[in-house]
Design goal:
With 377 residues, this protein is of the alpha+beta class. The protein contains 10 helices and 17 strands. The strands form 5 sheets. The chain has a 5-stranded mixed beta sheet with strand order 7-6-12-9-10. Strand 9 and strand 10 form a beta hairpin. The two termini are 35 Å apart. The relative contact order is 0.14.
């Protein structure tokens, strides 16, 4: 009896060959399932989970009006002279002593005829008048002295971060947060999605207060327009400082800037959308809360088909969105690892048709014949 060869038309041989091929495919699928990241959904999310469709109104602990008043009392303002200020000194009927445009030196001193060098650092203008008067009383009877600040350079703040002209701003009188922002050229790119939420006022080495800019600018809560003191640092964080990360089967995986109304679907679209290997039924959001994070699974397919957006959660900075690969994507990945020579081969059902596996299986199981979606004539 002639021994039948695989593929020779013998039904038993064909079926055995088909089953061996299917076993091989199942084995490769099993390997493929182990070849990629597979997030595990948190079994029992904590009550009061942070996953909500609306972003939290406050994620930063902002200073209250009482806190602002405590660190910056609204006392009667009195300017004090410092380095860089330019003074005009007038002595009545004494033009040889009167001087204009006197620059206060870095060590806080000025020099006048008959008076010599005197320290005016942190003095009020009227206090400088008294110092000069006492010096001139050795030479004149009841000298009349007036001191005026021509240019103010010791009432300054450093405005850094997201402003049009970051740097040093000088106040002619008492300064405020809004005045500092205006002197720094205002805030660029005020589209709603890029709108600012906060800024910090850093005072000395031990005081920092965060101001809710949304409440101040949009709601007009002027109690948050904090007074600015000399040498304060005002820092407006860049919007790019807050990011979410989109990984997995998307066109452009990477970091995405957190914008107003950022949610899962918006983040995926900003990453170019899902690629053809993605499994829309398995989208995971990983949120780090403390040492232990929380993982939520989202069925984006069901969300879009049903129009139920209750799980299209708002994203917070540092969230991770992971788009899982489909089963066929895992299979192809495993096959590429095992058979490098077939890296360009996509073993979908159309290729299985070409190899004759699918039609033989249909013939033996259901009595159907012929090719499906075949390019053969």
């Amino acid at each position: 009896m002639q021994q039948s060869k695989p593929g020779s038309g013998n039904p038993s041989s064909l079926l055995a060959h088909t089953l061996v091929s299917l076993h091989t495919l199942l084995f490769l699928l099993f390997l493929g399932s182990c070849s990629s990241i597979s997030p595990r959904e948190t079994p029992n999310p904590k009550s009061g989970s942070s996953f909500k469709t609306e972003p939290p109104k406050t994620v930063q602990e902002f200073a209250t009006p009482d806190r602002i008043a405590a660190v910056t009392p609204y006392e009667h303002y009195q300017y004090r002279i410092g380095p860089g200020d330019i003074l005009n000194v007038q002595v009545w009927k004494r033009p040889e002593i009167s001087q204009e445009g006197i620059t206060v030196s870095p060590d806080g001193k000025i020099v006048l005829p008959r008076v010599g060098s005197i320290s005016v650092l942190e003095c009020k203008p009227e206090e400088v008048e008294e110092l000069i008067t006492k010096k001139l009383e050795y030479y004149y009877i009841k000298p009349e002295v007036s001191v005026r600040v021509h240019e103010f350079h010791n009432n300054k703040a450093f405005v850094l971060g997201r402003v049009s002209k970051p740097g040093v701003v000088n106040f002619p009188g008492k300064g405020s947060l809004l005045e500092a922002l205006a002197l720094a050229g205002g805030i660029p790119d005020q589209r709603e999605e890029n709108s600012l939420t906060k800024c910090a006022i850093i005072r000395g080495s031990d005081t920092i207060i965060w101001i809710d800019l949304q409440d101040l600018l949009r709601n007009g809560n002027m109690a948050l327009n904090a007074p600015v003191r000399n040498n304060d640092i005002i820092y407006i964080p860049e919007s790019s400082d807050e990011l979410v990360y989109v990984l997995g089967e998307v066109i452009k995986p990477g970091a995405i800037q957190v914008k107003s109304g950022m949610n899962v679907m918006k983040a995926i679209m900003l990453a170019g959308g899902m690629n053809k290997s993605a499994n829309p039924e398995k989208i995971f959001v990983i949120r780090q809360q403390n040492a232990k994070g929380e993982v939520i699974r989202i069925d984006l397919k069901n969300l879009l088909e049903s129009g139920d957006f209750s799980r299209n959660y708002a994203l917070l900075p540092e969230d991770i969105v992971f788009v899982s690969p489909s089963g066929m994507a895992k299979f192809n990945y495993a096959l590429e690892k095992l058979l490098p020579s077939l890296q360009m081969l996509n073993l979908g059902t159309s290729n299985l048709e070409t190899f004759g596996v699918m039609q033989e299986l249909r013939k033996k199981l259901w009595g159907q014949e012929g090719f499906v979606n075949s390019n053969n004539d």
